Amino acid sequence: MTIRVLIVDDQMMVREGFSVLLGAQPDIEVVGEAVDGLDALRKVAELRPDVVLMDIRMPGMNGLEATREIVAADAGAKVLVLTTFDLDEYVYQALRSGASGFLLKDASARQLADGVRVVADGEALLAPTVTKRLIQEFSRLGTPRTPTPERVGDLTERETEVLVLVAQGRSNAEIAAHLVVAESTVKTHVSRILVKLGLRDRTQAAVFAYEAGLVRPGG
User: Fold this and answer.
1) How far apart, in whole angstroms, are the C-alpha atoms of residue 171 and residue 183?
2) What is the pLDDT of residue 208?
3) 172 and 206 share a domain?
4) pLDDT of residue 123
5) 71 and 158 inside one domain
6) Signal sequence: where (predicted)?
7) CA distances from 188 to 122, 126, 158, 162, 207 (A)
8) What is the C-alpha end-to-end distance of the chain, expressed in Å?
C-alpha cells in the first residue's frame, strides 16, 4: 500500500525538499503541503493522509497545538514531528499530545523515508537510540502525570515486562528475541497493552512507562 504523506512546515524550501525526497520512494506519495498548524488541520480533513510530517515552530498555530487537534479529531493520521534540535523543549510535549514519533531535520533521505514507514506501520519507536534518550530527557523536564494504580494493575506481569521493553526503544523482533517468544506473541501483548491503558500507539506507551515509574530516566 502507498503511504499518503502531508508535509507541514512554514519554510517553502523545507517542504519542497522533503517532498522531492519522499516523492522518489515507490511506496510513499506526498499528497499535500501546509504552511502552518491551521492549514494542516484543513489539509488533514481534506486529504486524509496516513502520516503528517509536522514542524513544531511555526507562526500562528504551532505544531504542538496542531498535533493535539489532529489526534483529538481522530482523523486516523499519525503525526511525525520534525525538529531542528535534538533537545527541543517541545518534543516531549508533542509526544504526550499524541505524536507518534519525531525526526531531526538533518536526517538523511533514507532515515526520512524509513521514519515515515515506521510511523505508518506502528511497528517500532522511531530511531530507538535517539528516541530513548529524548524520552528520558523530557521525562525529567515534563510535569509528571502519575498514572492511576488501577491502570498499571490491569496489566499482567508479562505485559508489564513487554511495556518496559517498548519504553527502552526495542522493536517487536528484539522483544521477541529477548523474551524467547514468537514475534506474533509480542504484537498481541502490545495490542492488549494499548487497549488496557487507553493509549494510541507505542510512543505513548513508552511515555506512560516512564511516567508510571516502570522505567527510570537514564536506566
Assistant:
1) 10
2) 83
3) yes
4) 57
5) no
6) none
7) 13, 20, 11, 11, 20
8) 38
Contact (Cβ atoms closer than 8 angstroms) between residue 43 and residue 34: yes
Q: Are residues 108 and 57 in the same domain?
A: yes
Which cell numbers hold the place of 74? 481522530
Kindly state whether residues 148 and 117 are assigned to the same domain: no
Residue type, 94: A
Give the model confidence (pLDDT) of 68-83 as tens digits. Answer: 899 888 767 889 988 7
- Tell me, yes or no, whether 219 lies in a domain: no
> Are 112 and 18 contacting, i.e. CB atoms less than 8 angstroms apart?
yes
pLDDT in tens, 150-207: 577 789 999 999 999 988 878 888 899 999 999 999 989 999 998 898 887 787 788 7
Residue 192 makes CB contacts below 8 A (sequence gap 6+) with 159
Question: Are the C-beta atoms of 146 and 193 separated by less than 8 Å?
Answer: no
